[in-house]
Amino acid sequence: MVRLLGRSGTRSPRLGEERAQRRARRGGTPRGPGTGLRPALSGRSVAGQVFVLHVVIVLLLVAAAVAALVLQGRIDSTQEARNRSLAVAETFANAPGTRAALDAPDPTAVLQPAAEAARKAANVDFIVVLNTDGIRYTHPKPDRIGKKFVGTIEPALQGRSFTEEIEGTIGQLVQAVVPIETPDGRVVGLVSSGITTEHVGGAANRQLPLVLGAAAAALALALGGTALVSRRLLRQTHGLGPHEMTRMYEHHDAVLHAVREGVIIVSGGGGLLLANDEAQRLLRLPPDAEGRQVSDLGLDPDTAELLASGRVATDEVHLVGDRLLAINQRPTDLRGGPPGSVTTLRDSTELRALSGRAEQARERLDMLYSAGVGIGTSLDVTRTAQELAQLVVPRFADYVTVDLFEAVLSGDAPDTGTKLRRAAYSGIRKDIPLYPVGERIDFIPTSPQARSLLTGQSVVEPELRAATGWHAQHPERTSGVMEHGVHSLITAPLRAGSLVLGLVNFWRAEKPEPFDTEDQELAEELVARAAVSIDNARRYTREHTMAVTLQRSLLPRSLPEQNALDVAYRYLPAQAGVGGDWFDVLPLSGARVALVVGDVVGHGLHAAATMGRLRTAVHNFSALDLAPDELLALLDDMVTRIDQHEAEGGSALVTGATCLYAVYDPASRQCTLARAGHPPPALVRPDGSVEFLQVPAGPPLGLGGLPFETAEVELDEGSRLVLYTDGLVEDRTRDIDEGLELLRVALEGAGPSPEDTCRAVVDARLPARPSDDIALIVARTRALGPDQVAHWEVPSDPAAVAEVRAAVTRQLTVWGLDEAVFTTELILSELVTNAIRYGGPPIRVRVLRDRTLICEVFDGSSTAPHLRYAAMTDEGGRGLFLVAQLAERWGTRYLPGGKVIWAEQPLP
Questions:
Q1: DSSP states of 84-112 as a string?
Q2: Which residues are listed as membrane-spanning (predicted)?
Q3: What are phi and psi of 302, to 5 degrees?
Q4: Where are the alpha helices (DSSP H) in 749-849?
Q5: Can you give the three-state secondary structure of 740-762, one letter per residue?
């Protein structure tokens, strides 16, 4: 940079000596700090001349401003007097009683007091009331009353108000004359109000001191500002006169040629006006360069074009010979200067090299930052490895491979004695013959990878052609890799604490520079960050696998055999963690089947364990043949007690669960449903139409105290009942109403079989990474035909037992079940006899031929039978014991109007 002499803290010694000699010849003394300003402002210096000129200009401006203010004040005062006198006169002329007073016998007696009061209130000099002949009725001086008015009254007699300046009886004044008119427009009198010129000018005179004070203050401020400006100019010029300033610029010219930065001035026509010594050296200009055209100086075309164009340039780098020059250029005519441009040149060859190394360091820091935010975005081992591989290609390496021990991929601790499996690859080309992803690799002991695993340290092979251990790993494959230009390798172990999870290999091909020590440090840092994320993903994989295993062990392994429904299902765990969704298909008595779907709030092992407890409870409660609403009430009470017990022990609460329970009877085709906070089931009719059943929405399980309601619907044979959890229809991106509508569309386009329906729903509704578990059951209904059901009404008479036995025998013969006649007669005889003896009417018998032979006896009593062992001396009590021995299963089912005792026996 060129340092201007006037801005520096030191002066030229020679210039200082000359100035001291001049002061000595004038008889002066050297100036000290306190005496330098007065001589400097004496007029002989540039600062003094500027100060005198400013003072003169300020004085002229202040004088003009004062005159203008005084003149404007008088004009404004006169205008104010005209306005005030006219307003007062008009007000008094139009005041109530003024016109009437003119008709009084003595108008003066009436108007004089009022006029004087109004004059004093309005702060005017007079208010005079006249008749149409100009004779005064009122006047501030009573001796003037009755005399002729001084002034013009003709315009007022014509009905016009006006103002004028005259010489009146009380002096020079401004007055207004206003007519007093009757309603019909006739002028009956006049009112004049006025202010003397003495009072008119008084306001301006009173303002004059203020105006003069403001002018004095403005003068003082202006002089102070001028003094500050001159003092600043004095500091910048050091009190130099014109001759001294010329000498100063001569010194500047010397400095210009001495600086280590090239300076060039080019005219608007492209001629070189000035080139300092540094510019001539950097551009290697000839001695006679000044005055010639830039294009004729033998410069390289780019630099010559830039200098001749005059365009703005900022730190443009040009190669001139063997030097890199940073060029800045600005035009000189931006602020009215002469056309042309000023150019500065700076040698940046060494700075460029330093900048390159700094840029390389910045890129590496940016890569480490990207690794911190871009690696480990998921808890998936393979995906995390792939994120590392994609991050560094091609910024750091041309090819990257990640090899992990197989145990790591499954979430277990690595076994260093096993082979590795390639988990990720990224590269600038796909056809390079490196080991593909998924292949198991056994590195030989001499390979860089084996040495890295053995020592736990990274290994650099700057020249792979000389790495015999690497060539011996797989000669054919390594030769192919070399043919693709790969020439350098860094292999680094993935270490997480004391565990070595695998290896990361960085290969360089397109970049000619081999890997060095700095590259090795960067690779180690990248691998260390990735190792933490991969180990976290491994641990999560292990925990997730354990939770999924537990969850699947609690879900049904297979569906039970039954003939009432064709069932297909899907269970899809969440990607983020297992949940508490479950489902079941439960055969009941009378060929009926129960379908249940539930969902425990939350995720993790606790939710899975709670799901297992609830599923076991549903199994137990369904064995009691309870109605759906009663079963949900018992389940709700159990969840409440679980929460209370775990709250006392400090464990996590269930915090809620939902459940849908449906019972289908193939004999009547009736389906009874109840739900506790669960989404409604969908029904697909045989014609393909879809509806969501209106099942009363009960509260979620665990709230307690609120009843559940059931809904009954008759299903046509071939209908499909669809039960699901909320993960299928609801997620963070859409609400449940939108999800239900999308489910309806998927069901309308699904195939007729339950398996086709499941496939269509899952394909249409499943997100890429579900955030919640999804349980889905599709059940297609069947019906028991009339030829599979037989029933009889039984009178409450012991003699009817024989008739029932005979009828059942005939029906079994028709069904071809002669082998079951004897056993069935014994069972029905005992059940019907008990119904007649201990129950109540009506009594009905029903026999169903399904997967088993089912005998049912209904009576109107709710008395519960129970099995007991009769003593040797007892005459009775062996009936139910006999039934239990002959039947495969038996039990009691309670209905609103009584009970059913049933027994099942296998078909022969």
A1: HHHHHHHHHHTSTTHHHHTTSS-HHHHHH
A2: 51-71, 208-229
A3: -65, -45
A4: 754-765, 800-815, 821-838
A5: HHHHHHHHHCCCCCHHHHHHHHH
Query: pLDDT at position 505, please?
Result: 95
Count other Cβ atoms within 10 Å, centred on residue 257.
Answer: 16
How far CA 349 is from CA of 260, 318, 354, in Å, comes to: 14, 10, 9
Residues in the chain: 908
Report how far apart, in Å, the C-alpha atoms of 121 and of each of 90, 112, 115, 210, 819 are.
15, 14, 10, 27, 136
Residue 814: which residues within 8 A CB-CB, separation 6 or more? none
Q: Express each pLDDT in 725-758 by its tens digit.
A: 988 888 777 778 888 888 999 998 888 899 999 9
Asked if 197 and 174 touch (Cβ cutoff 8 Å), the reply is yes
Query: Cα(651)–Cα(547) distance, rounded to whole angstroms?
Result: 18
C-alpha–C-alpha distance, residues 541 and 408, integer Å: 9
Close Cβ partners of 89 (under 8 Å, ≥ 6 residues apart): 127, 161, 176, 177, 178, 191, 192, 193
Is the N-terminal amide bond of 842 cis, ω within 30° of 0? yes
| Ranges of H-type helices in 460-516 | 468-471, 475-483
Contact between residue 505 and residue 403 where contact means Cβ atoms under 8 Å apart: yes
The pLDDT of residue 451: 92
Contact 430, 401 (CB under 8 A): no
**Residues 819-844: tens digit of each pLDDT:** 888 898 888 888 888 888 888 889 99
Q: What are the backbone angles phi and psi of residue 201, rounded to the nearest 5°? A: -75, -15
Q: Are 673 and 710 in contact (CB under 8 A)?
A: yes
Instruction: Decide: residue 118, CB within 10 A, 0-12 exposed, 13-18 middle, 19+ buried.
Output: buried
Q: Which residues contact 488 (CB under 8 A, 6 or more apart)?
A: 460, 461, 462, 463, 464, 507, 508, 514, 515
Alpha carbon distance 425, 404 (integer Å): 12
Question: Which H/E stretch holds residue 359?
Answer: helix 349-374
Q: Are 92 and 115 in contact (CB under 8 A)?
A: yes
**711: CB partners within 8 A, 6+ apart:** 672, 673, 674, 693, 694, 695, 696
**What distance in Å separates the CA atoms of residue 375 and residue 373, rounded to the nearest whole number?**
6
Task: Check whether the bond before 394 is cis (ω within 30° of 0).
Answer: yes
CB 902 within 8 A of CB 589: yes
Task: List Cβ neighbours of 660 (8 Å cut-off, separation of 6 or more).
Answer: 596, 597, 598, 673, 674, 675, 676, 678, 679, 681, 695, 723
Per DSSP bridges, beta strands 420-427 and 440-441 are: antiparallel
Spatial separation of the C-alpha atoms in residues 891 and 406, rounded to whole Å: 54
| Dihedral angle of Cα 137, 140, 142, 143, to the nearest 10 degrees | -100
Rounded average pLDDT over 95-105:
83
CB of 550 within 8 A of CB of 608?
yes
Strand positions, DSSP E, 217-261: none
What sign for the dihedral angle of Cα 411, 417, 421, 424?
positive
Buried b / exposed e across 569-605, counting CB within 10 Å, b at 16+? Answer: bbbbbbeebbbbbbbbbbbbbbbbbbbbbbbbbbbbe
Using DSSP's 3-state secondary structure scheme, residue 711 falls into strand
Max alpha carbon distance in the chain (Å)?
163
Give the contacts of 802 (CB within 8 A, at least 6 positions apart).
none
Which among 583, 565, 576, 514 is positioned nearest to 541, based on CA atoms?
576
Structure tokens at 501: 């999870």
Interatomic CA distance for residues 338 and 843, integer angstroms: 124
pLDDT in tens, 590-628: 899 999 999 988 776 777 778 888 888 999 999 888 999
Query: Which tens digit of pLDDT belongs to each residue from 103-146?
Result: 888 888 888 888 888 888 888 888 888 888 888 889 888 888 88
Q: Which amino acid is at 690?
A: V
The type of residue at 745 is V
Output the pLDDT for position 35: 43
